[in-house]
Amino acid sequence: MTQTAVPEDFRCGYIAIVGRPNVGKSTLMNALIGAKVSITSRKAQTTRHRITGIQTVDNAQFIYVDTPGFQTRHSNALNKTLNKTVSNTLTAADVTLFIIEAGMFGPADQQVLDLIPQDVPCILVINKADHIKDKATLMPFAQKVAALRNFTAIVPVSAKLRFQLDSLQAEIRKILPQNMPIFDEDDITDRSEKFLATEIVREKVFRLVGDELPYTSTVIMEKFEQEGNLRRIFIAILVQRDSHKSMLIGQKGARLKEISTQSRFDMEKLFGGPVYLEVWVKVKSGWADNEAGLRAYGYE
User: Fold this and answer.
1) Domains and CATH numbers, the chain
2) Beta bridge partners of 275
3) Can you give the pLDDT at residue 4?
4) Partner residues linked to 76 by β-bridges
5) Quick one: pLDDT at residue 21?
6) Residue pLDDT, tens place only, 17-31
7) Distances (CA, A) of 40 to 56, 136, 159, 285
8) How confident is the model at residue 216, as a pLDDT?
9) What is the pLDDT of residue 26?
10) For 291-300, which contacts have Cβ atoms below 8 Å and span 24 or more sequence positions?
11) In terms of C-beta density within 10 A (0-12 exposed, 13-18 middle, 19 or more buried), how is residue 175 classed?
12) Distant-in-sequence, close-in-space partners of 229: CB < 8 Å, separation ≥ 6
């Protein structure tokens, strides 16, 4: 940590971002820190790890922790591991952002809300506020949800359009503890480039293959080398069946080529330099059938 002078009232702390799947948690964190460190897609379960995003300003350091969407429908090893990640993050947070979708609040949202410790300050963030056609309905909806808990603040936002994000950060800063910064001011995540590279590929897999591919498919780093500003990256996509491998490769390799091309573009943008990328698909059945197998492939 680089030692620099900071104001006496400098605030710093961990902010857990929680909600059911597909409410826009990763999109919100990326928008708040101004960089893409957590992957996004329309497919639920996209986020599988704790992803930390860091933003440092003159008087505060915001350490956002994006979590997997809490799973309520299936009790398999992967979902149990994801839910454990959510619960562990909540107990360690200084502030919690409870994310819901404007106009929508159901049993899955309530289950997440029930997990949040009562002694942790909690801000209700109503995302996708731009999707509400009749804006007059937003206030009654917010009041209905607000009656369920003593929220520190209620902030409607649009993560995609960056609407009200400054207001949200102002509310967060009010309740962050007075602390020295934990990370350097230029840090945007505590994750390694290796991890970010595999996450980028996994995002493209979800976006380009969609619901055809099972949730258990994953991405691992085979080799990562750096020569000056050039990064040479070799990545494998693990699937459980030959049919899944065919889906990813596509006709004459077209789909895998598109996954690689889009991934390389995003890596070069994030890493700020040229990337040589090779991606291939491997069949490895049975790895995701239990918690030990999940831990072996990096699930926390």
Assistant:
1) 11-175 (3.40.50.300), 193-296 (3.30.300.20)
2) 231
3) 58
4) none
5) 83
6) 999 888 988 889 889
7) 23, 30, 12, 26
8) 60
9) 86
10) 291/77, 291/80, 291/81, 293/77, 294/77, 294/78, 294/81, 295/81, 297/218, 297/220, 297/238, 298/49, 298/220, 299/48, 299/49, 299/78, 299/81, 300/49, 300/50, 300/81, 300/85
11) middle
12) 273, 274
What residues contact 295, with CB distance under 8 A and at least 6 apart? 81
Q: What phi, psi does 71 have (nearest 5°)?
A: -95, 130
- Give the pair of three-digit tokens for residue 281: 């698909």
- φ, ψ for residue 72, nearest 5 deg: -120, -15
Q: How many angstroms separate the CA atoms of 28 and 73, rounded?
A: 24
Whole-angstrom distance, CA of residue 239 vs CA of residue 9? 50
The count of C-alpha atoms lying within 13 angstroms of the C-alpha of 278, restricted to the half-sphere facing its C-beta, is 6
| Cβ(102)–Cβ(138) below 8 Å | yes
Low-confidence residues in the chain, pLDDT < 70: 1-5, 39-50, 68-89, 210-216, 285-300
pLDDT at 199: 86
| Contact present, 62 and 172 (Cβ < 8 Å) | yes
Question: Exposed, middle or buried, 135 (CB in 10 Å: 0-12/13-18/19+)?
Answer: exposed
Two structure tokens written together for 288: 């995701």
Residue 190: closest CA among 72, 40, 33: 33
Residue 68 DSSP label: P
**pTM for this structure?**
0.73
